[in-house]
């Protein structure tokens, strides 16, 4: 069931039938227009009044948060970011996160040492369009914090670097707003999806702590995301994940099969536009405030725009260890 659905959306030669793909924006419009109660909207998010909103996010009072009736534990916060906030995370994911000592999929056999250690810096050096294009599309993932070993599917205490504190604060904020008191971001995979690339069906079960939620941030072009059940036999649900969307896999959905069969061009560039900065007293001091200012400048932003115009970025954040454990014991 899962594999058939994956193939149906992936199909390249013709455009797939998108009728069954859940569009949270449409869904809300239809239900509000007809005045009926929307069962997919999580009725209320409990927000602690003492929590200060990080820079680059809208007030949680303005968030729209959805859950799917047949996938308990799956939540989507529909783009809680401001345009500048999106630009900041896009720039961090491209310029900074792929830098050594973080791990990337690029290897020294096929790419220069500089490209492996500083992909974005290297990308604009060659002066050749085809060389740049090859390097641009070759980047598929970087790992942060505990680095997942894709072959053995284990995390290893020896392969551990500092988790970026800005991303940690952001995800901790999301987790607190949603009522998870003890979430500690310890590992992240940043996935890069040039249009035409996919991620096939899998479950994420390598973490020692499978009770903790998983936070998945989407930026750039739109994904069709498939969420299924605990086995590949169950029929998955398809939904659009758009730029800025925050997907949370918790409880029953934490170990469900999921995939990205397609990345589609969007005409709504929600990372462009005026950010209504709503508070003067931003709390996320771990953010790179220089970068936050720079991304507002169109000249500085241009190369990032060039990348995100035909790619999607996903930042996938997990807690690896049980809350009372400080390292992986071998
Ligand atoms: O790109 C996505 O939305 C999902 C990525 C994912 O499932 C993963 O990194 O494990
Ligand atoms: Fe996954």
Give a brief description.
This protein is α+β, with helices and mostly antiparallel strands and 330 residues long. The chain has helices at residues 2-10, 24-33, 83-96, 113-117, 119-123, 129-138, 165-177, 289-294, 298-308, and strands spanning 65-67, 74-77, 103-104, 141-145, 187-194, 199-202, 214-220, 222-227, 237-241, 246-249, 258-264, 311-318. It has an 8-stranded antiparallel sheet with strand order 1-2-10-7-12-5-4-3, with helices on one face. Strands 6-11-8-9 form a 4-stranded antiparallel sheet, with helices on one face.
Topology:
Elements: H1 2-10, H2 24-33, E1 65-67, E2 74-77, H3 83-96, E3 103-104, H4 113-117, H5 119-123, H6 129-138, E4 141-145, H7 165-177, E5 187-194, E6 199-202, E7 214-220, E8 222-227, E9 237-241, E10 246-249, E11 258-264, H8 289-294, H9 298-308, E12 311-318
Antiparallel strand pairs: 1-2, 2-10, 3-4, 4-5, 5-12, 6-11, 7-10, 7-12, 8-9, 8-11
2-oxoglutaric acid (AKG) binds next to β5, β7, β8, β11 and β12.
Keywords: Dioxygenase, Iron, Metal-binding, Oxidoreductase
Organism: Drosophila grimshawi (Hawaiian fruit fly)
InterPro entries: Alkb (IPR004574), AlkB-like (IPR027450), AlkB-like_sf (IPR037151), Oxoglu/Fe-dep_dioxygenase_dom (IPR005123)
Folded structure, characterized:
- With 330 residues, this protein is α+β, with helices and mostly antiparallel strands.
- The protein folds into 2 domains: 241 residues, Jelly Rolls; 34 residues, no CATH class.
- Helices cover 25% and strands 19% of the residues.
- Strands 1-2-10-7-12-5-4-3 form an 8-stranded antiparallel β-sheet, covered by helices on one side. A 4-stranded antiparallel β-sheet has the order 6-11-8-9, with helices on one face.
- Strand 1 and strand 2 form a beta hairpin.
- It is globular and about 50 Å long.
- It starts with a helix and ends in a 12-residue tail after the last strand.
- About 2% of the residues have low confidence.
- The protein binds 2-oxoglutaric acid and fe (ii) ion.
- Fe (ii) ion (FE2) binds next to loops.
- 2-oxoglutaric acid (AKG) binds next to strand 5, strand 7, strand 8, strand 11 and strand 12.
- It comes from Drosophila grimshawi.
- Its cofactor is Fe(2+).
- Keywords: Dioxygenase, Iron, Metal-binding, Oxidoreductase.
- One of its GO terms (biological process) is oxidative RNA demethylation.
- This is GH12171.
């Amino acid at each position: 069931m899962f594999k058939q659905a994956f193939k149906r959306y992936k199909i390249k030669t013709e455009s797939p039938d998108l009728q069954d793909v859940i569009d949270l924006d449409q869904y809300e419009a239809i239900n509000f227009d007809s005045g009926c109660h929307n069962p997919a909207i999580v009725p209320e998010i409990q927000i602690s009044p003492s929590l200060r909103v990080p820079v680059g996010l809208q007030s949680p009072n303005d968030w729209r948060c959805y859950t799917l009736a047949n996938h308990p534990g799956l939540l989507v916060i529909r783009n809680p970011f401001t345009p500048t906030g999106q630009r900041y995370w896009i720039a961090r994911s491209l310029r900074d996160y792929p830098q050594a000592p973080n791990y990337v999929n690029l290897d020294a056999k096929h790419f220069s040492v500089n490209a492996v250690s500083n992909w974005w810096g290297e990308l604009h050096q060659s002066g050749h369009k085809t060389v740049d294009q090859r390097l641009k599309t070759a980047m598929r993932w970087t790992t942060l914090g505990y680095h997942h070993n894709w072959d053995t599917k284990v995390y290893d205490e020896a392969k551990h670097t500092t988790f970026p504190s800005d991303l940690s604060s952001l995800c901790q904020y999301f987790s607190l707003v949603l009522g998870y008191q003890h979430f500690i971001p310890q590992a992240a995979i940043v996935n890069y999806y040039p249009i035409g690339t996919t991620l096939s069906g899998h479950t994420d079960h390598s973490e020692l702590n499978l009770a903790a939620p998983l936070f998945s941030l989407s930026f750039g072009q739109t994904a069709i995301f498939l969420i299924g059940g605990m086995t590949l036999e169950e029929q998955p649900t398809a939904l659009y994940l758009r730029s800025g969307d925050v997907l949370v896999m918790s409880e029953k959905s934490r170990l469900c099969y999921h995939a990205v069969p397609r990345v589609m061009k969007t005409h709504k560039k929600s990372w462009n536009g005026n950010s209504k900065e709503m508070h003067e007293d931003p709390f996320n001091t771990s953010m790179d405030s220089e970068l936050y200012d720079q991304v507002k400048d169109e000249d500085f932003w241009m190369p990032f725009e060039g990348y995100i115009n035909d790619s999607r970025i996903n930042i996938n954040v997990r807690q690896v260890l049980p809350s009372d454990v400080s390292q992986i014991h071998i």
